[in-house]
């Protein structure tokens, strides 16, 4: 199966499939422009895009929760989480510099965010928005991944 994503004249900087495979979320910006949009497109037909969020600054890192109900991404020094059913947003603040990656824990209770600019990783409790822990890593990198059982978190380039 092949579907063309209707995102011209946009450049795509991040994308993620929903866990059920029905949708693709992507971060797009008009070529040569700073503002970014988070879009949702049908994976089967390419129909859409539905604009979920418009940002005046660069947006990066994009992840669906394991059940597909939440979508997280980075905007500046913050991580944003959108509940796809209610449309509600949560903004998680704590990084000193731009966030470059986000990842959900397998149990959907935590979100990790990484900043390659300040070499930090923060883990958030999603129900409360409270920061659970902050870690420093030795070099730049925004890659994040929870172990399948959620007891370990890997961070790196």
Map the helices and strands.
Elements: E1 10-17, E2 23-30, E3 36-42, E4 50-55, E5 59-64, E6 70-75, E7 78-83, E8 89-93, E9 101-104, E10 110-115, E11 120-125, E12 130-136, E13 143-146, E14 153-156
Count of individual helical segments = 0
Record the strand order, biggest sheet: 1-2-3-4
* First-residue to last-residue Cα separation: 32 Å
Low-confidence stretches: none
The Rg value, from CA coordinates, equals 15 Å
Instruction: Please state the structural category.
Output: mainly beta
How many beta-strand segments? Answer: 14
Q: Helicity range of the residues?
A: under 10%
Largest sheet: 4 strands, antiparallel
Order of helices and strands: EEEEEEEEEEEEEE
Please, what is the average pLDDT?
86
Quote the beta fraction.
over 45%
Shape: globular
Polypeptide structure, described:
This protein has strands spanning 10-17, 23-30, 36-42, 50-55, 59-64, 70-75, 78-83, 89-93, 101-104, 110-115, 120-125, 130-136, 143-146, 153-156. It has 157 residues and is an all-beta fold. The N and C termini lie far apart (32 Å).
